[in-house]
Amino acid sequence: MKLFGFEIRREGEETGHIPVSFAEPLNDDGAITVGNAMGGFYSTILDLEGNAKTESELVSKYRGLAMQPEITQAVDEIVNEAISVDTDDKVVEIILDDTDLPDKVKDKLVEEFENVLSLLDFSNTAYDTFSKFYVDGRVNYHCIIDPEDIKAGLQEVRYVDPRKLKLIREIDKSGKDKHSGAPIKKVKSEYYMYSENGFGSDKGSSSSSQGTQGFKIAKDSIARITSGVMTENNSLVLSHLNAAIKPINQLRMLEDAVIIYTLTRAPERRVFYIDVGNLPKSKAEQYLRDMMVRHKNKLQYNSSTGEISDARKMMTMTEDLWFPRRGGERTTEVDTLAGGNAAGLTSDENLQYFQRKLYKSLKVPISRLEPETMATFGRTSEITRDELKFGKFIQRLRNRFSSLFTQILEKQLVLKGIMTPEEFAEIKNDLRYDFIQDNYFTELKEAEITRERLTTLREVEEHIGTYYSREWVRKNVLRMSDEDIKEMAKEIAKEAAEAPEEEPTDDGDMESQSNTDQRDSKIVNG
């Protein structure tokens, strides 16, 4: 099957060995799974609060949700914490310390990673790209190459609206295990469907095929990342803003109710009880209208023309009330309907409850969203648990977002012939990405942990060799792993060999330097 774009051939595909299993592959990328009898393209439907019917409408709903003031403030807090742009440092760097690659290959990988960031223009668009990923819950990039010169690698990386792209995965369910008889499922092919008009965007259209028309694109030519948040049946990718839909709707309804109550109950109104005696119903109604017109004289001033108009026929809910009254001891009466309770109008306990509920759904500490709360910077004992949870949440978002770099880097390395897909798969899980840290609370935590460990080390130093072994101190006090111990010993030995020998000025300096060297040697080298 010839698809638009390029396709990277893997070793398993060339030999015909396709992995098979009785279970379908994990669908956390929003792919639509179809069987052998594929007669067309089927969209996924999600009824979310009775509004969102398709994935396209869901993305549009998220973008509209992000325009709300509270949501906008929360998104800014999250994106600002995850992406920090500094004129001196790079936004993100690749870490290859966990890989066993030669230094020349590592240098080549770092160079190609810089090319990937240049293609994404990440130094200028990092904030916008991460914001799209967080709000939409998915980001798609079309990787463009020169068919005449594939070895030149990627020529351009172009953003694709997620409402116009769908991932399709065909599953072959025809086979059965000859021993157990269980059905065997294997991935037959994967590709994307692209529609210029978008999928499910033609509301009110009678033809269901208009939302499914498009052409197929090879999977390898698209770099796609998702939030990883799925529906309960694992059929649709959701955004992190999905949990805030219900709280924001409830908050808006409550705010509207307060405004309506304020407008209708705040002003005081007059109540006219008109005695109509024994008049027939029709004449009583006519008499009541005459009284209304006679006593109701509403003058309006037009500031643009300077004219004064007399509007006698207009009556609103916030003005006087008129009721007929028949005979008896009580005659015509004018009463006053008091306005709403001022305390009840100004009470905002319900509003505060739903605001806090909204903030919790966004996973942003409430102290960051309340302007009257001042931020305090001190020891970690003063840092709230919400800040620590928020820092971990930001790290999870960064890890998920980093897969975009991994996908584009793989295509770049394979196209240029630097690595094969199989070789990249071996180091894929060892790649690390270091973002500029802007979480001051995390830095305080790490600094205090290091300070406490060094304080404990000084206290147990005199007991080393008597009650504690040096190995135990390194592992339990300094919390060093076996690799850290070996690496630190090598670095200390290297620094000692490269350091120039300085002659001591007197005997006191010589003795002090000797004691320091002996103490360091005991703790580190044993």
Search tags:
526 residues; 3-stranded antiparallel sheet; 5-stranded mixed sheet; 19 strands; alpha+beta
How would you describe what is shown here?
The chain is α+β, with helices and mostly antiparallel strands. It has 3 domains: 11-251 and 378-443, no CATH class; 267-338, no CATH class; 464-525, no CATH class. It is built from 16 helices and 19 strands. The strands form 7 sheets. Strands 1, 2, 8, 9 and 10 form a 5-stranded mixed beta sheet that branches.
Whole-number count of domains: 3
> What portion of residues belong to β-strands?
15-25%
- Profile the largest sheet: 5 strands, mixed
Mean model confidence by pLDDT: 77
**CA radius of gyration:** 35 Å
Low-pLDDT runs of 5+ residues are 202-212
State the total count of DSSP E strands: 19
From the N-terminal CA to the C-terminal CA, the straight-line distance is 65 Å
Number of helical segments with 4 or more residues: 16
Helix content: 40-55%
> Which class best fits the helix and strand makeup?
alpha+beta
Inertia-based shape: elongated
